[in-house]
Design goal:
By secondary structure, this protein is an all-alpha fold. The protein has a single domain, classed as Ferritin, CATH 1.20.1260. Helices cover 66% and strands 0% of the residues. The protein has nine helices and no strands. Helix 3 runs antiparallel to helix 4, helix 4 runs antiparallel to helix 8 and helix 7 runs antiparallel to helix 8. The protein is elongated, with a radius of gyration of 18 Å.
Amino acid sequence: MWNYEKRLQYPVNITQTNPKMAQVIISQFGGPDGELSASMRYISQRYTMSDKRVQGVLTDIGTEELAHMEIVSAIIYQLTKNLTPEEIKASGFDKYYVDHTLALWPQAAGGIPFNACEFQSKGDSITDLFEDMAAEQKARTTYDNILRLVKDPEVADPIRFLREREVVHFQRFGEANREDCNKSERTKYNH
C-alpha cells in the first residue's frame, strides 16, 4: 500500500538545542490537533467512505500526516539531543525527562498524554469530512502559534512547511466533501 522513502518530506537540520521550544512543538506530535491524531483520524475514516476517490484522499493525507509526524519528531529530537542534566533542569524539561528521558512520547504542550479521543470517526461522510476540515484548521492555528514563539529559522522553516500542508489538506477535504455530496442522494439530502 505504501512506498516508504527513508528521508524526511522536508529536511530538518537544527544545530542548537532548545528544550523549551521542544516542549511547545511536542503538541504537534501528540497533542489534540497534532500529526498523530490526524493520521489516525484519516486512516480510520477511509473505511466507511462510500466514494472511492474520497477514500483515496483520506489515505493520501493520512499517509502524509505520518510523514509529518516524522518531521515533528525529528525537530523535537534535534532540539533535545545530548542535553546535559543542568540544561534539562534549567529549561523545565526535567518533568518530561523523568518519565521519558529524551525519547519521544506523544503528549500535548501542557503535558497531557495522547489519547484516542483526540480523533473522531463517525462513519458519516459529511460529519467526517467537516471534522477533517476543522482538524486541519486547528492544526494550522497551532502551527501559527508555534511560529509566533519560534525565532530560530532552523526550526521555523520546517514548521512553516507543515503549516502550508495543513492549508492544502483543508482545501482537499473541501473538494472531497463537494465531490461526495454531488454523488449520493442520501448525502445531498443531508447536506
